[in-house]
Amino acid sequence: MSNRYAVILAAGQGTRMKSKLYKVLHPVCGKPMVQHVVDQITKLNIKEIVTVTGHGAEMVQAQLGDSSQYALQDQQLGTAHAVSQAQNILEGKAGVTIVVCGDTPLIRAETMEDLFKHHEELGAKATILTARIEEPTGYGRIIRNADGLVEKIVEHKDASEDERKINEINTGTYCFDNTALFEALKNVSNDNVQGEYYLPDVIEILKKQGEVVTAFQTNEFEETLGVNDRVALAEAERIMRARTNAAHMRNGVTIIDPANTYIETDVEIGQDTVIYPGTMIKGKTVIGSECHIGPNSEIDSCEIGAETVVRQSVAHNSSIGAHVNIGPFAHIRPDSTIKDEVKIGNFVEIKKAVFGKGSKASHLSYIGDAEVGSDVNIGCGSITVNYDGKNKFLTKIEDGVFIGCNSNLVA
Ligand code: UD1
Ligand code: MG
Fold first, then answer.
1. pLDDT digit string (tens) for 140-170?
2. Is 36 among the catalytic positions?
3. 82 Cα nearest atom in ligand 1
4. Ligand 1, residues 13, 24, 79: which to mutate, most atoms within 8 A of Cβ?
5. Read out DSSP for 256-274?
6. How many whole angstroms from 284 Cα to the centroid of ligand 2?
7. Which atom from ligand 1 is nearest to the alpha carbon of 170?
8. Nearest to 316, CA basis, from 282, 345, 287
9. Could you tell me the pTM of the whole model?
10. Which ligand is nearest to the CA of 128?
């Protein structure tokens, strides 16, 4: 296997999104599009990853951190110009470079691996990842000669009536021989409808030099969806959600209504857990086996033990044990630790509190900044008075305490 490099294009403003937020930072299933791309790329055996940034460069770098190197594209003169910005880092290095757009969040590592293999086996200088789609409007079209070999790519805006009828499209992902790529980029002109330097023109340049240029057609069109506006963003969200839910179901999780269940991509769920409709599970949440979650619950970045039930409730950044019963209508706020066999009933709010094993707050309570021991019973309407208007104070309740109704426990 040759050395592998990657260039991710992420400098565009994304005019068609009509947004203050830079296009590649728009989230799909809770994670910015460009982060999805980088997460998949890092699964491949890649020596150097370069992300080309421009609009929102600082924010994109803050998002991706040191998982990538960066090249700045001051002015967005087109995708070929964007790749050229990686010249200082990559030019002259022997190997294969994959170029991926930061606005194709659904692309999977497996497909990119297949593209690399196809490219390497054919000894090509360039390989385009293509797909056949029903509605190709907006995409670059693949022009093949009478023998079926790729000749060039024509952008939608530059295409003739006949060329627009072609439904094999450029997905925006390519493999190039790295040295040939940077040589060819020097010959790309901006003589086209948009006055931009098009990366797809590299294909025609290499072809005219007699180099081997191929296409690798994927059947997974959905994976190659390029998000240019919010209609496509919602479409990407729908596809990603269906993919994530299907993976959980194959792993033994029951999802009653997948179309109404929103699980972000880094969530882990144990076998025989049942997720009810209207539930959102976000961040790095880990849920054990045989739990019942939902309906209508929001869980963000929590750890939840086995056989726990969470109904119609909200829980954020907290650790929840096994055999716990939460809800309906409970709110577990950040930094709470709920130990095993606890019961948190309706209209109970917990904030930054430890709840010991087997303790109960069954109705209408606020327990904030508190350490509650094990087997404690907190009666209906009891609250911890934790705030004097300036500072927060800790309430400590030891094991086995019984608190009656309507008690104010001043810290
Ligand atoms: C591009 C391809 C098109 C392909 C489609 C697939 C070109 C000219 N066209 O079109 O053939 O079918 O993707 O989705 O490449 N970017 C920069 N700097 C720039 C311009 C763009 O970094 O100067 C980045 C954008 O942030 C984006 C990516 O490159 O992530 C693609 O740019 P975009 O404007 O979305 O190109 P498309 O019109 O979608
Ligand atoms: Mg695009």
1. 999 999 988 999 999 999 999 999 999 999 9
2. no
3. 18
4. 79
5. S-GGGEEE-TT-EE-TT-E
6. 29
7. 12
8. 282
9. 0.93
10. 1
